[in-house]
Amino acid sequence: MARPRTIDREHVLDCVEQLVHREGVAALTLEAVAREAGITKGGLQYRFGSKDDLMTALIDRWLAAFDASVARHIGPDAGIIDRARAYVLTVSQIDDTTQVRMVGMLVTLLQSPKYLQKIRAWYAGWFNGCDPDCREARQARTAIFAAEGAFFLRSLGFMEMDPGWWKTAFADFQQLILSDPCTP
């Protein structure tokens, strides 16, 4: 009796990204993903269920990787200021290839209300538990929005930023977050 072949989840998700990057989202079918990953369509469906489940797994992987990167820069009980600093630092360190891959997939995925809601909930989580009107929350929000804006402007090709400009811009974003508490 043959031993059942194990389907490597991460390999399949890598294949999804490669397929979309190479051929566009229109090429994203279960058949194409299975072929790209070297597995059967039935095996793919057994592991992921549906195309929606596959896309959800991909989004979850991106968010978990980003969150893990942020967590490496802060402690478990970090406040909004430290979390925002780590967020800005993490965005500044995303390499060009990853930027293009992520933005291309996100723009495509966000056309679905299901995926858009998942991303919205993730962003909202960055500000849970803090008073949105306090000075620290406003500073954190401004720095995070600035970092996201630069990320998308560069990744979508709306602005060219050489590495020096990129580094300087993110240093400026960090300066938006003051270390001393201020009054509004």
List keywords for this structure.
single chain; about 180 residues; mainly alpha; 9 helices; Homeodomain-like_sf; transcription; DNA-binding; DNA binding; transcription regulation
Write a concise synopsis of the structure shown.
68% of the residues lie in helices and 0% in strands. By secondary structure, the chain is mostly helical.
Describe the protein in words.
This protein is mainly alpha-helical and 184 residues long. It has a domain of 98 residues. It is 68% helix and 0% strand. The protein has 9 helices and no strands. Helix 2 crosses helix 3 and helix 6 crosses helix 8. The protein is globular. It starts with 8 loop residues before the first helix and ends in a 9-residue tail after the last helix. The relative contact order is 0.10.
Q: In total, how many beta strands?
A: 0
Question: Structural class from helices and strands?
Answer: mainly alpha
Fraction of residues in helix: 55-70%
Q: What is the radius of gyration? A: 19 Å
Helices and strands, in order, run as HHHHHHHHH
Instruction: Identify low-pLDDT runs.
Output: none
Protein name: TetR family transcriptional regulator
DNA-binding region: 29-48
Pfam families: TetR_C_28, TetR_N
GO molecular function: DNA binding
